[in-house]
Design a protein that fits this description.
The complex is a heterodimer of chains A (196) and B (207).
Chain A lengths: L2 H11 L10 H6 L4 H33 L5 H23 L1 H7 L3 H4 L3 H12 L4 H29 L11 H15 L4 H8 L1
Helix pairs in contact in A: 1-8, 3-4, 3-7, 3-8, 4-5, 4-7, 7-8
Chain B lengths: L1 H5 L15 H6 L4 H24 L9 H23 L1 H7 L10 H11 L4 H30 L2 E3 L9 E3 L1 H5 L8 H25 L1
Antiparallel strand pairs in B: 1-2
Helix pairs in contact in B: 3-4, 3-6, 3-7, 4-5, 4-6, 6-7, 7-9
The chains are: A mainly alpha (196), B mainly alpha (207).
Chain lengths: 196, 207
């Protein structure tokens, strides 16, 4: 598949949150206001791009030659946990401003299933190194797009009257459901029409 | 002691009350069989990790406890993944990447950190069984609603001449297909959570 194809697939057609339910916990938890949603979104893009290329390298250069594919799950989660820690330290050192903006979201990302999800999906789809990187980046952008739209909707919702039992999380789910319905407009046919 | 078991079923139900482990709950709830398979996997991993974390609580240094828990959990997830691939290949295909994603299911790490690392072995076992069953029940409820109304069927295990699919007469001809789609999962979850909020609110007012 071309790079543009991969990007369109992961941002719109297989949007991680709205069609695959990966990364749902931060999506519901951090979408209260736009500012934190954007912070979380960029942190996720960063970690997902790094994670997909790193796990690709470890899987194809170490696990496969040694015949240790069954260690995939355990290796990937350790790589991601280490990577998140490492990224946190580097950002803290290099750019305190960026650290201030993203800092609190970084530890949360280790248990974000979207990150492990993209690593596992890239292996399953047999992507090569640049394709894995692009897929990770695009899936992160898809996450940012969904959480950004969601947070602006929730800020509007805060000003409206909502039945008591629907306040907070339930209405967020219903909103996400309607968003997912809208995202159904993006399907494989779109990709075919665009790229032939 | 029994309370450690029963709290996971209703009062602290991981899916509806604590809102943990939602990604797999929604993603695999298209068919009842997938929900049961996922539930079984989660119960096994939760039981294994709670037992090991509880037994090792004196040995794991405070600072590296989270990575240690993750390694324990990932080992059990690998066991589930390989066993499922060998003995239930079609289930394994249906659940896909979500079997491996049990590793990042926050219910399991949450119980290791909040419960098993502080309590005795029998208490941790009961807690794991209760939380695991509570998770499975929640998953079962979502998948029943989605499959019954979204496809008009209930898919169970195939046995002998029975292909494992129960068809509901009128519904299977006129299903509300939206419930089977991704958005249906989110909508069902939203309405169920609202229902539980309403029930809790009513109980509080009565008390």
């Amino acid at each position: 598949m071309t790079y543009i194809g991969i990007i369109i697939t992961f941002v719109f057609i297989n949007n991680f949150i709205l069609t695959q339910f990966l990364g749902l916990c931060p999506f519901i938890g951090v979408s209260r206001n736009t500012e934190s949603a954007v912070g979380m979104g960029f942190a996720v893009i960063f970690v997902m791009s790094m994670a997909s290329i790193t796990t690709w390298a470890i899987y194809n250069l170490i696990l496969v030659p040694l015949g240790l594919e069954f260690l995939q799950t355990i290796t990937f989660i350790l790589i991601i946990a280490t990577l998140v820690q490492f990224v946190e330290m580097v950002i803290q050192k290099v750019s305190p401003a960026l650290y201030k903006a993203l800092g609190i979201y970084l530890p949360l990302i280790t248990t974000n299933c979207a990150v492990l999800g993209i690593a596992l999906i890239a292996v399953r789809s047999e992507y090569n190194a640049p394709e894995s990187f692009v897929a990770g980046f695009a899936a992160g952008v898809g996450f940012l797009l969904a959480i950004l739209v969601m947070s602006t909707l929730r800020e509007k919702l805060d000003k409206e009257w909502v039945p008591k039992c629907f306040r907070g999380v339930p209405i967020a789910f219903v909103t996400a459901g309607l968003m997912a319905l809208a995202f159904m407009a993006f399907d494989k046919a779109l990709l075919k029409n665009l790229l032939g | 002691m029994f309370n450690e078991f029963s709290k996971g079923l209703f009062k602290e139900n991981p899916i509806f009350i604590v809102l943990l482990g939602l990604c797999p709950a929604l993603a695999v709830s298209t068919q009842v069989i997938n929900a049961l398979g996922m539930g079984a996997g989660v119960i096994f991993v939760l039981l294994g990790s709670n037992i090991f974390v509880s037994l090792l609580k004196g040995f794991i240094p405070e600072k590296i406890r989270i990575p240690s828990y993750i390694v324990i959990i990932a080992s059990f997830v690998t066991i589930v993944d390989l066993v499922m691939k060998a003995y239930a290949p079609s289930l394994s295909r249906n659940l896909g990447v979500f079997v491996q994603l049990i590793v990042v299911n926050c219910v399991i790490l949450g119980r290791a950190e909040a419960f098993a690392s502080k309590k005795t072995l029998p208490e941790s076992i009961l807690d794991a069984l209760g939380m695991g069953l509570g998770f499975t029940l929640g998953l079962l409820l979502i998948s029943l609603i989605r499959e019954v109304f979204g496809a008009g069927t209930i898919t169970l295990f195939a046995m002998g001449s029975f292909d494992g699919v129960v068809r509901i007469p009128w519904l299977s001809a006129n299903p509300a297909r939206v419930l089977g789609l991704a958005s249906g999962a989110l909508l069902v979850m939203g309405f169920l959570k609202a229902l539980f909020n309403w029930l809790e609110d009513r109980k509080e007012r009565a008390a």
